[in-house]
Design goal:
Blueprint lengths: L2 H14 L5 E3 L5 H14 L4 E3 L14 H11 L5 E2 L3 H8 L6 H15 L2 E5 L7 E8 L2 E8 L9 H14 L4 H17 L22
Parallel strand pairs: 1-2, 2-3, 3-4
Antiparallel strand pairs: 4-5, 5-6
Helix pairs in contact: 1-2, 2-3, 4-5, 6-7
Length: about 210
């Protein structure tokens, strides 16, 4: 997709609705990343959540190599919070993460390096508990929940970042937004739906959560 088309889509959304917060996802190229960064400033979006989608849960690369630099330089500094998964955090910090303690240290490292809040999704650490770590302006928050034995979990990270964005749009503190988003995803996994041979997350399990 042409970068200009992305710019026009953002403009149309902001012209048509009072946008309180926005989330980015897989942006693919440096041209699109620069367009999104410019549109974020130009449209005056109050809160930006950057999900730095670089690597899928399977390990497949989703972002062009030359776009990583643009993401870090153009978009990440504008974010209220970034939400890398374990693979993406390793790319951002340049070293492996093999424990919860390393997860905590890396959230701090990334947060300080880019001067932004950082929550690392720790689902890919081998453990019975899923631990996510938020570092925000010198404070560390650790969120722990039992691992859900889901048939499929594709998209859980994106739903997590989207739920954080929704709660921030409602005026929640970041730490509260992350905790509530984690529970939202856990319930979406527990209450998955059947679709043919697949069992996707049920993101409609609590429609009343975001009503009113």
């Amino acid at each position: 997709m042409a970068a200009e088309a992305v710019t026009q889509q953002i403009k149309a959304a902001c012209d048509g609705f009072p946008v309180a917060a926005a989330k980015t996802g897989m942006l693919f190229s440096k041209e699109i990343i620069k367009a999104v960064a410019a549109a974020d400033v130009g449209q005056g979006i109050p809160v930006l959540v950057v999900d730095p989608v670089m690597v899928a849960a399977s390990g497949a690369r989703l972002l062009k190599e030359d776009a990583v630099e643009a993401l870090c330089e153009e978009l990440v500094p504008q974010a209220r919070v970034i939400t890398p998964n374990l693979h993406e955090a390793q790319i951002l910090c340049g070293h492996p993460i093999t424990s919860v303690e390393e997860l905590k240290a890396t959230a701090r490292e990334i947060g300080d390096r880019f001067d932004v809040a950082c929550v690392i999704k720790g689902a890919h650490l081998v453990s019975e508990q899923v631990v996510d770590v938020l570092y925000d302006e010198g404070e560390e928050f650790v969120f722990t929940a039992p691992r859900v034995d889901a048939v499929e979990s594709h998209g859980a990270g994106c739903v997590f970042a989207a739920a954080i964005t929704a709660y921030l749009a409602r005026g929640e503190l970041l730490s509260d937004a992350v905790g509530k988003a984690k529970e939202f995803v856990r319930q979406a996994l527990l209450q998955h739906v059947s679709a043919g041979r697949h069992y996707p997350l049920n993101i409609s399990w609590a429609e009343a959560t975001f009503a009113g």
